[in-house]
Amino acid sequence: MSRRPVLSRRAVTLGLLQHACTADPAENLATTLAAAKRAAQDGAQIICTQELFRSQYFCQSEDHKYFQLAEPIPGPSTRAFQKLARQHGVVIVASLFEKRAEGLYHNTAAIIDADGSLLGIYRKMHIPDDPLFYEKFYFTPGDLGFRAWTTRFGRIGVLICWDQWYPEGARLTALRGAEILVYPTAIGWHPKEKAEYGTHQQLAWETIQRSHAVANGCYVAAVNRIGLEKPVGGDGLEFWGQSFVAGTSGQILEKASVDRAENLLVPLDLAKLDVTRTHWPFLRDRRIDAYGDITRRFVD
């Protein structure tokens, strides 16, 4: 009598920190550290902050005063998270406004292993310039490429917000061996557009990231903030929360609320990557000999 093979289980719990931000960077850091500590105590092993958690989303205007929010890496925020990671034995992805040098700034994520060591950083590659999302004024595009890091609890890749819309970034990170793609995020509605476009915008954001999970046979996690922020007046931006984790076939495993601060803890089995990829062998069947034009801006 034949038996099915017994598959090993590689269990890990992901913790996503969703909350509102105030105008006080110190308060936001304290809030995020407290949320990370609770997540660790509740069993999270890989913890991720939302994008630029230390401030309200200042890119709603072009104002030189906001460069004062930036900090070096390593710096005070990374040191605080390294201490927490070491104390609780957790991996942390922390999204920061990096001051690399005078006049040179990046939107950067720090990857910290469970022993408190700083494994490396990822600098946001795709920089948007849309109404109330004036990021090109502040951030130099990333120059480190797409990477993945082997942590105590699995191999993770990190991309940031606007990177979410680009399958190339997800693919190249997965090809680096990432088992989980994590996207710190700050995305919301223009209040006046919400009634007409809001549902379509949120569904497009969710769908494209679920498609990265399908195409690459890996887990995808998006961590978004909540709340209406008006740092420069006007209507501001209404951040839609709904942080989520998608499984290796693109299914939603867990999703947070639209407007509530919460830690979303999601157990994952990393052994499912091999199961998914052997049943849907997209990586095997890629025609790498035929993709040269992908590096061109447009093919006439």
Secondary-structure blueprint:
Layout lengths: L10 E8 L6 H17 L4 E3 L27 H13 L2 E11 L2 E9 L5 E6 L5 E2 L2 E2 L13 E4 L2 E5 L8 H9 L4 E5 L3 E2 L4 H23 L2 E5 L2 E4 L7 E4 L3 E3 L5 E4 L6 E8 L2 H8 L21
Parallel strand pairs: 1-2, 2-3, 9-10, 10-12
Antiparallel strand pairs: 1-17, 3-4, 4-5, 6-7, 8-9, 11-14, 12-15, 13-14, 15-16
Helix pairs in contact: 1-2, 3-4
What does this molecule look like?
The chain has helices at about 25-40, 75-90, 165-175, 195-215, 270-280; strands at about 10-20, 45-50, 90-100, 105-110, 120-125, 130, 135, 150, 155-160, 180-185, 190, 220-225, 225-230, 235-240, 245, 250-255, 260-270. By secondary structure, the chain is α+β, with helices and mostly antiparallel strands. The chain has a six-stranded mixed beta sheet with strand order 5-4-3-2-1-17. A six-stranded mixed beta sheet has the order 8-9-10-12-15-16, covered by helices on one side. Mean pLDDT is about 95; it is low at about 1-5.
